[in-house]
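Section 3.1: Structural characterization of target chains.
Under the original work plan, the team committed to producing a structural model for every single-chain target entering the pipeline before any wet-lab resources were allocated. The record below documents one such target. The sequence was received from the expression subgroup and is listed exactly as submitted; it comprises 236 residues.
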Amino acid sequence: MRPAPLRSTLVTLALAVAVTAVAQSQQAAQSLYDQGKWQEAATAAAALNTSAGFALAAEATTAGAGLSADAQKKPLFEKAQGYARQAIALDKNNADAYFELARAQGRLAQYSGILNSLNLAGDMKKNLDQAIRLRPNMAGAYVALGLWHANLVSKGGAATFLTGAKKAQIVPNFEKAIALEPNVAVHRIEYANALLLQGNKAGAAAQLQKAVSLPADTFWEKRDLEAAKAQLAKLQ
């Protein structure tokens, strides 16, 4: 039998190797996602059976739904919710998991009936609030909150009464996100979308003008950049 200190050292080394392998696998899945290979990324990330892996699988699936046929979107958003819930089950302090659950719910609401979409809006707000409680500097969550208020305000008084959405909360959430991550183009693109919902074309064009000047490295960033350029051209 090996001395206890040696056994302890071997166990520590084995754990370190395992943690490193998981981290590398997470990075590999992230790389697939950054290349636009969302299906492969989701499969690889979910196979890790970790909270971070399931959160990435949810992100990839939600993003992939945006490239898919309309008939496939709703099932994919539901699948993304499932991944996010698995992430939360494994780690209730994973801010990314709550954010991805909220994001999938927001997308799903666009393909649901009025009552169900309002229920999803309520759940989305709770999950975004929880993500921010866990990580107060999560810029993406503030963007999502800004969009949440903007979309519901645009639907009229009944939607704002039932959900508590407020026009006065739109700009502050986007400004907070941009202050945290000024060089992330998608924040400004979504800000432009929110401003357009309010009929502010000049403000939207200003945000898009800034967005198209920012670098785009990943498949998704390049796609957002092209969409921003096209939308800006329509406003000019």
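DSSP finds twelve helices and no strands in the chain.
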